[in-house]
């Protein structure tokens, strides 16, 4: 299941490289770092943590276009797929 988080992280690294705005790039990098931690199980993400990160990514997606938007969208899809496999509290 962590392959979804790894894929999201990889997509976000690419999105950060193509982002036009420093603010957007910072939001992407912060989320990328969190997914790297989650993929290693530190901490193990729950629905609330993922919802917070997904909300950030959705906001970023609205501020971007082109390749950056595509990569953020791909990351969102990967995280949503991962989220389906998590037990709800």
Structural class of the secondary structure composition? mainly alpha
Strand content range: under 5%
Mean pLDDT equals 91
Taking all Cα atoms into account, the compactness measure Rg is: 12 Å
What is the global morphology? globular
Uncertain segments: none
Task: Estimate the helix proportion, in percent.
Answer: over 70%
Please provide the count of β strands: 0
Q: End-to-end distance, in Å?
A: 18 Å
Total number of helices? 4
Quaternary assembly: single chain
The tally of structural domains comes to 1
Instruction: Write the H/E string, N to C.
Output: HHHH
Biggest sheet architecture: none
Task: Describe this structure in a few short sentences.
This protein is mainly alpha-helical and 89 residues long. The chain contains four helices and no strands.
How is this structure best described in words?
By secondary structure, the protein is mainly α. The chain has one domain. Helices cover 79% and strands 0% of the residues. The protein is built from four helices and no strands. Helix 1 packs antiparallel against helix 2, helix 1 runs antiparallel to helix 4 and helix 2 runs antiparallel to helix 3. The two termini are 18 Å apart.
Topology, element by element:
Layout: H1 2-18, H2 22-39, H3 47-62, H4 66-84
Give the tags.
89 residues; mainly alpha
């Amino acid at each position: 299941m962590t392959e979804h988080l790894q894929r999201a992280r990889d997509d976000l690294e690419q999105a950060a490289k193509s982002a036009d705005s420093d603010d957007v790039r910072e939001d992407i990098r912060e989320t990328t770092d969190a997914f790297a931690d989650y993929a290693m199980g530190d901490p193990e993400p729950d629905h609330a943590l993922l919802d917070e990160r997904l909300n950030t990514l959705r906001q970023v997606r609205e501020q971007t276009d082109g390749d950056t938007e595509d990569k953020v969208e791909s990351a969102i899809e990967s995280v949503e797929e991962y989220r389906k496999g998590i037990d709800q509290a």
